[in-house]
Amino acid sequence: MERFRVSPVTVSRALAQLAADGLVVTRPGAGAYRAEARPVSGPTGDTSWQELALSADGALDLVPRTVDAAGVVVSLAAPPPGVIEFNGGYLHPSLQPERAMAAALARAGRRPGAWGRPPLDGLPELREWFARGIGGAVTAAEVLITAGGQAALTTALRALAPPGAPVLVESPTYPGMLAIARAAGLRPVPVPVDADGVRPPLLADAFRATGARVFVCQPLFQNPTGAVLAPERRAEVLRITREAGAFVIEDDFVRRLVHEDAAPLPRPLAAEDPDGVVVHVGSLTKATSPSFRVSALAARGPVLERLRAIQIVDTFFVPRPLQEAALELVGSPAWPRHLRAVSAELRTRRDAMTSALLSGLPQLSLPHIPSGGYHLWLRLPDGTDDAALVAAALRAGVAITPGRPYFSAEPPAAHVRLSFAAVAGAGEIGEGVRRLRTACDEVF
């Protein structure tokens, strides 16, 4: 502390990192000591055989089962110290209901039987809560509790499409879903999205051309465009999918991150679907914390049993204390207060980022300003390399997300996605845009 003029917390963290790296050992009550020298390792083994073993899956493997998590990691990994986080996929800690979650977890842990085995489909009260949020005729019996939206999407895709099958996806779309599909050996087929969501004529063409039996979409505040599926298109999407004998996986990921100035939200597609076309995915994670991984799958008909079987085989069940804590949280007076506060703050941050971009970076095209979600989708000038801009931005001290991973085929233009939820506030947004302008001056 004396030598480097730093706080005790900094020293403690540094020692913890050194201990994790095996360079020091800490002894409670005695101090920290240099660790014994590590023995010289023996000859490095030869792991090159794995390349063949992982790729040679047999003649029936029509699609290579490569797993590329790069598009997901970019929004999960924390940026280096001092870098402004415009690439985050979750709320900043100041926006998370930390006290409410801690209180809910404490109350849940004291419930009789809270640490026992839960029902395999999830706690009945929590399933009922998710069913009410969907509306329509969806019942608690048609809901399965899952461990986060990513796990729910994985279960749904595995249940509905065999390896090698095509799956229709919006273009652009969420990279995490594309990674799931490719890891499962599926073939993502893009269907273009405009300001009103997916384009029904092109969706019908894609079903006819591919024979696909699954279409994955985000009808509300689509990631990354922020588009909301237009009222006149909703029934068309359901009709086209039903006539194709296919399913819609509805990823309703940010319904609880609506902005304060938004119009009344449309109901989920699942609420307007009596025929079991829609498999609905809803989650609490985006509105709470990345570690509060509680979500739900809702489906009607025989597909529900397949979803249930895959869920059990993969994970058995979601830990009961987390389910109990979710019930405590959404049933507390703190929950609606939290949602109102986040709604107001997201609007403020969206307006701050939009204003800073329009005044400071007019060369970046912002075709749509969403009224929900946590990010903006920007088109770059023709000929721009989004990867080069991302690298320049990081050198300037701001982390942004490249647009390329959001496309399952060749992108029509270069884009970047900027998040306004993971930063500390409007002041940091202004500084981040200033740093981004420095990067744009370098690249353009």
Low-confidence stretches: none
Helicity, as a percent range: 25-40%
| SSE topology string | HEEHHEHHEHEHEEHEHEEEHHHEHEEEH
**How many E-type strands?**
15
Shape, per Cα inertia axes? globular
Biggest sheet, open or closed, and with what strands and sense? 8 strands, mixed
Describe this structure in words.
The mean pLDDT is 91. The strands form 4 sheets. An 8-stranded mixed beta sheet has the order 4-11-10-9-8-5-6-7, sandwiched between helices. The chain has helices spanning 8-20, 49-55, 70-76, 98-109, 124-134, 149-160, 175-183, 200-210, 231-243, 303-315, 320-330, 334-360, 386-396, 426-443; strands at 24-27, 31-34, 84-85, 143-146, 166-171, 187-194, 197-198, 214-217, 247-252, 278-283, 295-298, 375-379, 398-399, 401-402, 415-419. The protein contains 14 helices and 15 strands.
How would you briefly describe this protein structure?
The chain has 444 residues and is an alpha/beta fold. 39% of the residues lie in helices and 14% in strands.
Features:
444 residues, alpha/beta, three-stranded antiparallel sheet, 14 helices, 15 strands, 39% helix, globular
Question: What's the structural blueprint in terms of helices and strands?
Answer:
Elements: H1 8-20, E1 24-27, E2 31-34, H2 49-55, H3 70-76, E3 84-85, H4 98-109, H5 124-134, E4 143-146, H6 149-160, E5 166-171, H7 175-183, E6 187-194, E7 197-198, H8 200-210, E8 214-217, H9 231-243, E9 247-252, E10 278-283, E11 295-298, H10 303-315, H11 320-330, H12 334-360, E12 375-379, H13 386-396, E13 398-399, E14 401-402, E15 415-419, H14 426-443
Parallel strand pairs: 3-13, 5-6, 5-8, 8-9, 9-10
Antiparallel strand pairs: 1-2, 4-11, 6-7, 10-11, 12-15, 14-15
Helix pairs in contact: 4-11, 6-7, 6-10, 8-9, 12-14, 13-14
